[in-house]
Amino acid sequence: LAWGRRAHPECITHTFGYKLANSLNQPFFCDAESASSNDRILRTTRKFINETKNKKDLFVIIGWSTFEREEWLWGEDYLQVTASGTDAVPAEWQQRYKDWVIAQTSQELARKRDYWADTIYDFHKELQQQEIKHLFFNSYSTFDLSKYTWDGCFVSETYTDYLTSNGYQTVAPDSYHFGKDAHIAWYKVLQKLVLEFYNQSRA
Predict the structure, then answer these.
(1) Digit-coded pLDDT (tens) for 49-98
(2) Which residues of the chain have pLDDT under 70?
(3) What is the pLDDT at residue 1?
(4) Integer Cα distance of 26 and 59 in angstroms
(5) What is the pLDDT of residue 149?
(6) pTM of this prediction?
(7) 82 to each of 6, 65, 85, 101, how far by Cα in Å?
(8) Residue 117 in contact with residue 148, Cβ under 8 Å?
(9) Dihedral pair phi/psi, residue 91, rounded to 5°
């Protein structure tokens, strides 16, 4: 199941999330959106959790986005903006967007990295308090994981670093997206961690 805007819905069945759910014989809900920000990930995850009756039956898996991305409220909708300089924004916001891209200096990116490290850790504690099982990983950007206590809920290596170090190629030289073979490899990494999580909880 999914809601919202999906850039490539035909690819859902080839993703690591779908394959992981199938391998564990579990239902699967994907709310991914192309170029999504962590703001959106937090907002939609909380929405989904709040609308789920049996919260303790959930297992939330999140691949966090790059830290520079933001979500801007536009009427009743949201815009996902990145520092690529190529995002489509309303005409009256084009100058705002250009100024924002210029403002993404190394110092600003470092500030955002630290902000998201703290925010993601706070969300981890929030889920723990609700007794919601979860597993996090960084998709591309990363921060010093050792500053926090994750209780086995954070994958130590980023999605991109793991796949690259194991010889998987992106779908195109100028792309950050990996193909089917890489998604199979990553789902197996997550599957092992999920099973270990359940085995430890039963011990």
Answers:
(1) 999 998 888 999 999 999 999 999 988 888 899 988 777 888 899 999 99
(2) 1-9, 201-203
(3) 44
(4) 10
(5) 96
(6) 0.91
(7) 17, 11, 7, 8
(8) yes
(9) -55, -40
Residue 48 and residue 31 in contact, taking contact as beta carbons nearer than 8 Å: yes
The rounded distance, in Å, linking the Cα atoms of 102 and 93 is 14
Bridge partners, residue 73, by sequence: 78
pLDDT of 3 reads 46
Instruction: State residue 86's pLDDT score.
Output: 75
The CA distance from 202 to 52, in Å, is 24
User: For tokens 């903006």, what's the residue?
Assistant: 81
pLDDT, position 65: 95
Measured CA to CA, the distance from residue 103 to residue 84 in angstroms comes to 12
Show the tokens assigned to 126.
């929030």
Are β-strands 59-64 and 70-74 bridged in parallel, bridged antiparallel, or unpaired? Answer: unpaired
123, HSE (Cβ side, Cα atoms, 13 Å): 24
